[in-house]
């Protein structure tokens, strides 16, 4: 099992930056895939960025060149650096781990971008 705890959300003006963190209860270096998802009110949860154990990354088109996923294996922590934030980035952001076909989710952290 993996417990995930996110932090770093908040209120920011459009054009600003935030850095989300996700601390895992165990080593993340061997987890098949770590990811960030988000869910806005009335919308389905959507993938934002993923990183495999081999550090291959993937982003949804709307955040490419603005968001960066990274991890610190020594601290069992996944990050999401978000720059040039837009009001449409407003959502609850969730950390996700996929390991041996099991899905693990954090509790989410709210990101609100004002115009």
Q: Tally of extended strands?
A: 11
C-alpha termini separation: 40 Å
Beta-strand fraction estimate: over 45%
Largest sheet: 7 strands, mixed
Structural class: mainly beta
What does this structure look like?
It is a single chain. Strands 2, 4, 5, 6, 9, 10 and 11 form a seven-stranded mixed beta sheet that branches. Strands 1-3-8-7 form a four-stranded antiparallel beta sheet, with no helix packed on it. 30% of the residues are buried. It is 0% helix and 55% strand. Strand 5 and strand 6 (57-59) form a beta hairpin. With 115 residues, the protein is mostly beta strands.
Provide the fold topology.
Blueprint: E1 4-7, E2 10-13, E3 18-24, E4 33-39, E5 46-52, E6 57-59, E7 67-72, E8 77-82, E9 91-99, E10 102-105, E11 109-114
Parallel strand pairs: 2-11
Antiparallel strand pairs: 1-3, 3-8, 4-5, 4-9, 5-6, 7-8, 9-10, 9-11
């Amino acid at each position: 099992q993996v417990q995930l705890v996110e932090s770093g959300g908040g209120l920011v003006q459009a054009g600003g930056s935030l850095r989300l963190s996700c601390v895992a209860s165990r080593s993340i270096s061997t987890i098949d895939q770590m990811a960030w998802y988000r869910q806005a009110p009335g919308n389905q949860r959507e993938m934002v960025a993923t990183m495999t154990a081999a550090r291959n990354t993937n982003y949804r088109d709307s955040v490419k060149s603005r968001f960066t996923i990274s991890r610190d294996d020594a601290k069992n922590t996944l990050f999401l650096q978000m720059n040039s934030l837009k009001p449409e980035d407003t959502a609850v952001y969730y950390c996700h781990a996929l390991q041996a076909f099991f899905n693990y989710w954090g509790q989410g952290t709210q990101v609100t971008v004002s115009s």
